[in-house]
Amino acid sequence: VFNEDQNGQPIQIVKRSVEIEFDYIKVNETEFSSRIDELKNAEVQKGFNLEVGTLLRLNIIHDGAQRYFVLWSSHHIILDGWSMAILFSKFKEKYHSLLTGKIISDKELLNYGDYVRQTLLLNNDIAIAYWKKRLEDYENVIQLPGYIINTDKPYFYKEEIIELSEELSTALQD
Fold first, then answer.
1. pLDDT value of position 16
2. Which helix (H) or strand (E) holds 72?
3. Cα 12 to Cα 17: distance, rounded to the nearest angstrom
4. What are the tens digits of pLDDT across the range 62-71?
């Protein structure tokens, strides 16, 4: 979550554990599409509270037969475009491995704590020299605004539809 210190400076608070908001909604086939639209609209209206709330939500709508709709909502501050592409690539890889029966190891994944420890071992002088060289042709410095939350702007979302077979859905539940 994000808040302010005693001097009004923005700070990030990394919690040891956070429960992800998850909702499994089972509907009949006739209301499947309308419930998807309702859920998407509700997610847009809900937005995110950086000071207290979970910044990731997962909703699954099941029509009781073979169709599932997964709505993943996350704030860009915890999952940028680059990371999202990696996440979905890994998800698709895992999905296809389940379809083909090929097992993929999760050992290559790096958790956030390991990432932080790894970055602390890096040589800051090398990183600073790299960025100075990279930015040397830029003349202007952009002053980033302070900690401002603008609730007047609408929240935008992106969709990616992935269909899972009934067998794979069962395998994922096990």
1. 78
2. strand 68-74
3. 15
4. 998 888 898 9
Here the tokens at position 52 are 């207290």
C-alpha distances out from residue 37 to 54, 85, 134, 160, Å: 22, 24, 45, 14
The pairs formed by 82-87 with CB atoms below 8 angstroms and a separation of 24 or more are none
* Exposed / middle / buried, residue 59 (Cβ in 10 Å: 0-12, 13-18, 19+): buried
Phi, psi at residue 72, to the nearest 5°? -105, 120
For the chain, how many helices (H) and strands (E)?
Answer: 5, 5
> Residue 91 carries which side chain, given as an amino acid letter?
F
Label the pairing between strands 56-62 and 2-4. unpaired
Report how far apart the first and last C-alpha atoms of the chain are (Å, whole number).
Answer: 32
Cβ pair 132, 121 in contact under 8 A: no
Q: Per-residue pLDDT tens for 4-21?
A: 888 888 888 877 788 888
Grouping H, G, I as helix, E, B as strand and the rest as coil, residue 142 is coil
